[in-house]
Amino acid sequence: MPVVKDIFIALSNNKFMNESAKRMGPALGANKVVAGVDIDSTIETVEKLNMKGISCTLDNLGEFVTSRQEALEAQQNIVEIMRRNYNANIDAHVSIKLTQLGLNIDREFAYQNTREILLKAHEYGNTFVNIDAEKFEDLVGITEIIDRLKGEFKNVGTVIQAYLYDSMNIMEKYSDVRLRLVKGAYKEASHIAYQTKEEIDQNYIKLIERRLLTAKAFTSIATHDHNIINHVKQFVKDNNIDRNSFEFQMLFGFRTDYAYQIASEGYNFCMYVPFGQDWFGYFMRRLAERPQNINLMLLDIFNKKNKGKIAFGATLLAGVSILIVGGISLLKKK
């Protein structure tokens, strides 16, 4: 239901709810999809996934960064997780968000922070650093920084969002850069992005096929959609595409058994593993993508062991209910 999706996107952008959730710690079922709040628990999760033949990309969660100090702290956390990964000899790299590193504070400041991460990555086994896609309003700043970095570093890549009308042109621009292909997780205007699942899926498949046939660099196909995954498997077989030129990728905590199955079939597989205190915005976007996952939230809210979290959960549910009723009322008036 589009109204429900829009509500969860709105909640992910609510600073008050994000700050309140951060003080409380993972709740509402988020502990099922966030690996942990610290590096130790995250590394334990990665080690278990590695034993299943699955590599990981780690996301140091963080939203609403408004000060240079916050951005520098985020940079230090990312460098520390890379150091710990290297010392633990685990199969993992990092995914970073430029807004967390100060993109909306000062573009040059964000560039320097990102460059420092890549320099440190070189020290720690030349680990790969993926620059995540964000809202469309940040796209120009993100691509400008990527364009500056890719000339100096070979261990940097980024993400293409299939719901953007211009996604094919953006992808073609980075034919020699490692890319992750996704459908897109934010709410964008109709003059910027496709709005229906059918349109997005169609464009996503088009991007995947084009990329696999023409790319000069590695490709991550990030989806939980078994129809698309099966399509890719058949396409790869029909076109004699080397399995080592791509991987499937899923989010930690979603369709885990299916992920294990794909990895056991001999495909490269990577799990996107978020960690940290700033879990709320990430979790709300996951609910927006798959509203049926609200079951995770309900089970956690009404778990007797979580008495201290019930008030926050009840507040959230009340807010969601009000927004749903209001949204439906508005739709009926149209």
From TrEMBL:
Classification via Gene3D superfamilies: 3.20.20.220
EC number: 1.5.5.2
Biological or metabolic pathway of the protein: Amino-acid degradation; L-proline degradation into L-glutamate; L-glutamate from L-proline: step 1/2
TM spans (from-to): 310-331
InterPro entries: FAD-linked_oxidoreductase-like, PRODH_bac_arc, Proline_DH_dom, Proline_oxidase
Residues covered by the Proline dehydrogenase domain: 43-290
Reactions listed under catalytic activity: L-proline + a quinone = (S)-1-pyrroline-5-carboxylate + a quinol + H(+)
Keywords: FAD, Flavoprotein, Membrane, Nucleotide-binding, Oxidoreductase, Proline metabolism, Transmembrane, Transmembrane helix
Full protein name: proline dehydrogenase
